[in-house]
Structures are given as C-alpha cells and as structure tokens.
Amino acid sequence: MSLEITAKFVQLGQRTSGEGRNGTWTKQELIAETMEQYPRKICFVCWGDLADKVREYNVGDVLKLQFSIESREYNGRWYTDVKPYRLDRAGEAAPSPAPSANTYQSPASTVDVDPAADDLPF
What pTM did the predictor assign? Predict the structure, then answer.
C-alpha cells in the first residue's frame, strides 16, 4: 500500500544507528503534522539515505511525503511503522528525466476526424 500526504515538519525525532547482518543501518524519526481542520501528528521512520536527507529540512517546512505503512509482530505485540520512501518540499517539482536519443515521439496526426460523422449509438 502506498500513500501520499502533505504535512508540516514539526520536529526531528530520535536518530538511531547500528550494525545488522547486512551492514550498518541508520534510522531517523521525523514528526510531521497534517494540515486538516483537526491536525494530527505522525511519526515517520526514515531509513538509510532518507535518514540523512531529512536533516536538509527546517521545522515549519511543508513536505510532501510518499510512504507505506507496515505492521509486524514481535513477542506477541504488534508494532506499526510509517516509512516514507520519497520526501520533497511541497511545491517542488520532481526532477524530470532528461530525454534520451531512444525516446520515441509519435508524429502529429494528419487525419481530420469529424465527431458528427460518428454513427455509433453510444
């Protein structure tokens, strides 16, 4: 499941790092507040490169977050993480890929179509 939200950066939470079987890991908590009539705070858990990118933003910045929600069971208790996989300032356009030589563009149509000539019943 993939979700997207625009929220205000409220606080930088706890930063944790350690060693795992796949090497060093880092996670950073980001607390953001929804911009609704009744705002709610959400603690996003940023892993890896996003843990460093979060530090580029300032409290009060409005962010667009694309994220997933995941729950897991450990010793009979359930834990839920809200994990962003993309994070940008609201209003910033995502960089568009540069056109490549292999990009195909169809030629402009030269056929004139008269919608009134359509004799289909629907």
Answer: 0.69
Residue 43 lies in a domain: yes
d(CA 40, CA 113): 52
Q: Calculate mean pLDDT across residues 15-21.
A: 91
- What is the Cα–Cα distance from 113 to 82, expressed in whole angstroms? 50
Q: How confident is the model at residue 2 (pLDDT cuts 50, 70, 90)?
A: confident
The number of distinct structural domains making up the chain is: 1
Residue 53 corresponds to which amino acid? K
Tokens representing residue 20 in the block: 């795992």
Residues in contact with 24: Cβ distance below 8 Å, sequence separation at least 6, in sequence order? 17, 18
115 occurs within a structural domain: no
Here the tokens at position 101 are 């030589």
Q: How far apart are CA 21 and CA 95, in angstroms?
A: 34
Residue numbers of the domain that contains 30: 3-89
Give CA separation, 58 vs 76, 80, 85, 103, in Å.
Answer: 38, 26, 19, 38
